[in-house]
C-alpha cells in the first residue's frame, strides 16, 4: 500500500514538473517569466538624490511584497548606487506589482546621514515588458524612497 502511495505522489510531481506555469504573473495579457527592478540609492536623509549627495555603494536592497513573509530577491548597490533586483520565474507567482516594494534596512555602514534604525522603502512602477523568444521580462523602476521606522 505504501509503495502505491509513493508511486502516486511521484507521478503527480513528474506531471507537475512537465506542465507549463498556468498560474503566475500576467501583465498586459503576457505571461511574465522574469521581473527586473532597477533603481539608484544615494547617501541622503531619504535615499534620494538631494543636491550633491553621493551614491550609496554596498547597500543591500530587498524586494518584498505585502503578505509575503520572505523577500523575493535582493541585490547589492554598485559604486554608482545603482541596483538591479531580479526575480526568478518560479518567484513571479508570489510577485504582485501593486503590493511589492523595495526596502533597504538601516543603518547602512557606508552612509552616516541615515538614522540609526528603520528602513528606506520605495514603490515600484512598470516601465515596459520585453518579449524574447524564451520568456517575457517585466522591467520596473523604483519610485522615490521614503524613510520609515520599523
Automatic annotation (TrEMBL):
- Residues annotated as signal peptide: 1-24
Q: Does the keyword Signal apply?
A: yes
Alphabetic keyword roster: Signal
What InterPro entries does its record include? Phylloplanin-like
Its name, as the record gives it, is: Pollen Ole e 1 allergen and extensin family protein
Source organism per entry reads Brassica carinata (Ethiopian mustard)
Amino acid at each position: 500500500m505504501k509503495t502505491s502511495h509513493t508511486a502516486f505522489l511521484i507521478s503527480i510531481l513528474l506531471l507537475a514538473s512537465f506542465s507549463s506555469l498556468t498560474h503566475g504573473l500576467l501583465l498586459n495579457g503576457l505571461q511574465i517569466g522574469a521581473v527586473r527592478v532597477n533603481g539608484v540609492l544615494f547617501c541622503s536623509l531619504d535615499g534620494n538624490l538631494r543636491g550633491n549627495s553621493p551614491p550609496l555603494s554596498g547597500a543591500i536592497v530587498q524586494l518584498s511584497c505585502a503578505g509575503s513573509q520572505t523577500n523575493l530577491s535582493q541585490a547589492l548597490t554598485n559604486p554608482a548606487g545603482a541596483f538591479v533586483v531580479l526575480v526568478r520565474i518560479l518567484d513571479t507567482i508570489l510577485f504582485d506589482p501593486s503590493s511589492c516594494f523595495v526596502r533597504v534596512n538601516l543603518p547602512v555602514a557606508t552612509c552616516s546621514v541615515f538614522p540609526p534604525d528603520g528602513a528606506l522603502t520605495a514603490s515600484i512602477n512598470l516601465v515596459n515588458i520585453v518579449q524574447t523568444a524564451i520568456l517575457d521580462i517585466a522591467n520596473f523602476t523604483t519610485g522615490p524612497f521614503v524613510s520609515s521606522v520599523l
